Write the structure tokens for this entry.
Amino acid sequence: MPREFKRVILKLSGEALREPGSQDNISPEIVEGIARQIQTAHQAGTEIAIVVGGGNFWRGAAAAGRGMDRATADYVGMLATVMNSLAVQSMLEAVGVPCRVQTAIEMKSVAESFIRRVAIRHLEKGRVVVFGAGTGNPFFTTDTTAALRASEIGADMIFKATKVDGVYDKDPNKYDDAVRLENVTFNEALSQNLQVMDGTAFTLCQDNNIPIVVFDMTEDGNIRKALTGEDIGTMVQC
């Protein structure tokens, strides 16, 4: 039986918007495909918020490792997430899904500033909300943004779209005998060092009892399946 939830956050990596092997930072065709999957869940009545990374444009930690000031590098990365957020908004609206972008760094010409109560009202009115610019602070990942926003808006679950089909007991890229886990508790994930999310994001989810579903978004239709409650990937919960 499909899981039921009212409000969720979908966490997308920036790389998810780029066609593999392409020189383009954003593939409109791929973003449209993601938008159409979100459309299905939206039509079913699920309130959906999205957090998207900026790794297709920029990685702050990598730039810092090459000599750039880390805080400045992270701010550049936050701006990269806004570009991705606007692309997602455009394609969602193209398939008939009302959408708003809210940013943690004020930029009135292109998006609303993040206001918790306004974001919740958008969701209640049937609009998808895309949260851009991370938390607005350096040294925090977009995983942490997803956990923070989920806590603020009272999301029932976070869906983390990745390139693997769940959480494994060891790295499946290195070990042929790695076993995929269907259900994991927060404590088990911590004790086994399963690397579900970065530590800050994971602690926020644990403290606020927000389950995380880790799933493979590269398989066609999996975003739709996840958001409509089908049993997919690995569930991490209390």
